[in-house]
């Protein structure tokens, strides 16, 4: 039976844990640990770059953390390094006060643009005209480099859509948008979505590195994709791997398209490439363009998990980390995590399960307002009614789907509280309209764009 008197306190505890994890696993702290400039030498993790040795040094920062990463680098190097910041529209508008070059928009935040950087903004999860403008500006800048240059790529999730231009001139913006919409709604995990994006793009799958004219390259990455191994934090799947050798192939693209029955849903110019088997391979591991390239992931979802687990333990919860369900269907992932929590709580002491990663939510019809985190939290609410369990799921970027929230918190009395307000959880779940249920309850997690992007974080508590 639910102890409803403790539920508000547990919701507060879950939010405290999430907030602490986001503060600890921040871009600023990751740069402080891994990037340092002193006496003309830039240290990036284990690499040293004497900036005086290069004719030109340029930084290209892209994705949802584009501004915060560029600001962290600029805080070390000052005016010695400039370049391009290509962010996501919502993030740029939150962080930049002055006008945005792509379209002349003005940001709503209080942080000024960095001197020496040109700013562009593109769309997410769908590309926009600004995405193509950003990609064009980056490629033009890279074409000015040579073997005596150094380019510092600052890469975070979101750049797949916000920096984009097709490799085939027959593919127009409306075709890109339609293709991205098909991929995002397919239910495929992000790595498979990105495999197809890479082979359709002039900037993904190592093609941005190829445009850099043989320059020395170092990529500093804030990862929002699954780690392929214990020492890998997403590698070439992050932002669709613009600067890295591609591990996916044309044949992979055809297999993925067949698995999710995508070809018939794609717009004509893209569909014809698949039907004619005209996709071209991206640069591979042994390509000479990567001989002067280095890559370092300085922040990933594991950092958020570790911080959350430390905080939960400090607060008195017996805590475990479980991300086995990464990229699962959201209902299967919810069932798995709740099973682990119930087993962990069987000894009768307060228990916590921490889980980073993302889930897939196939969308049907015309969705309402929400996102994968709120959809998962609402489904969890239906599975824990009457139990002493709290379930928080939220995105580290502060944006969940098409809503104003990063995610939501559910517990054993969510269903009853919704009914008391004449809200209808089953209908909201079916219509992918979770925001309009959680927000009236006061259980939305709202942060605004965070300038970070290291996947979603779930915090489950039992008492």
List low-confidence stretches.
Answer: 92-110, 229-234
Number of helices: 17
Note the beta-strand portion.
Answer: 15-25%
Q: Characterize the largest beta sheet: strand count, sense, and whether it forms a barrel.
A: 6 strands, parallel
| Average pLDDT for all residues | 92
Count of individual beta strands: 15
Strand order of the largest sheet: 6-5-4-7-8-9
Oligomer: single chain
Any idea what the shape is? globular
What is the distance, rounded to the nearest whole angstrom, between the alpha carbons of the first and last residues?
Answer: 11 Å
Task: Classify the secondary structure makeup into a structural class.
Answer: alpha/beta
Cα-based radius of gyration, to the nearest Å: 22 Å
Structure description:
The structure is a single chain. With 463 residues, the protein is α/β, with parallel strands linked by helices. It has helices at 7-24, 27-34, 66-77, 89-95, 129-142, 159-162, 173-184, 190-200, 207-210, 250-259, 268-275, 301-314, 330-344, 372-383, 414-420, 425-430, 435-441, and strands at 35-38, 41-44, 47-50, 56-62, 82-88, 117-122, 149-156, 216-222, 293-299, 318-321, 351-357, 389-395, 407-411, 444-445, 456-462. Helix 4 links the parallel strand 5 (82-88) and strand 6 (117-122). Helix 1 packs across helix 12 and helix 8 (190-200) crosses helix 10. The longest helix has 18 residues, at 7-24. It is globular, with a radius of gyration of 22 Å. The protein starts with 6 loop residues before the first helix and ends with a strand. Mean pLDDT is 92; it is low at 92-110 and 229-234.
